[in-house]
Amino acid sequence: MVKEIERAGMTVVHACSIVPISLTVGGNRIVPTIAIPHPFGDPHLAGPEEKALRRSLVEKALQALETPIGGQTVFE
User: Fold this and answer.
1) Are 62 and 18 in contact (CB under 8 A)?
2) Residue 59: how many CB atoms within 10 A of its CB?
3) Reduced to 3 states, what is the DSSP secondary structure of residue 53?
4) Short-list 6, 62, 5, 28, CA closest to 14
């Protein structure tokens, strides 16, 4: 789906927990996340720490949207 959205002219960030799959399907801007059942969080963290983790992942995705790339790029 990422490739189809980009073909329509919209920049997309693929946030995923298994980066090799995203590379295989052709995602251009890839942001690694935490785990399959909890991509944007960690239930083992306390409230403030989890909120900070979530915020950092969203900020990383926004930064990936703004970054010019020449091909598949993983934003660590």
Assistant:
1) no
2) 10
3) helix
4) 28
- Listing from the earlier edge strand, what are the strands of the sheet with 29-32? 14-16, 29-32, 73-74
Q: What are phi and psi of 38, to 5 degrees?
A: -140, 70
Domain that residue 36 falls in? 12-68
Per-residue pLDDT of the chain (76 residues; tens, 9 = 90+): 788 888 899 999 999 999 999 999 889 999 999 999 999 989 899 999 999 999 999 999 999 999 999 999 999 9
Residue 60 is assigned to a structural domain of this protein: yes
Specify if 64 maps to a domain: yes
Domain total of the chain: 1
47 part of a folded domain: yes
DSSP state of 40: T
24 in any annotated domain: yes
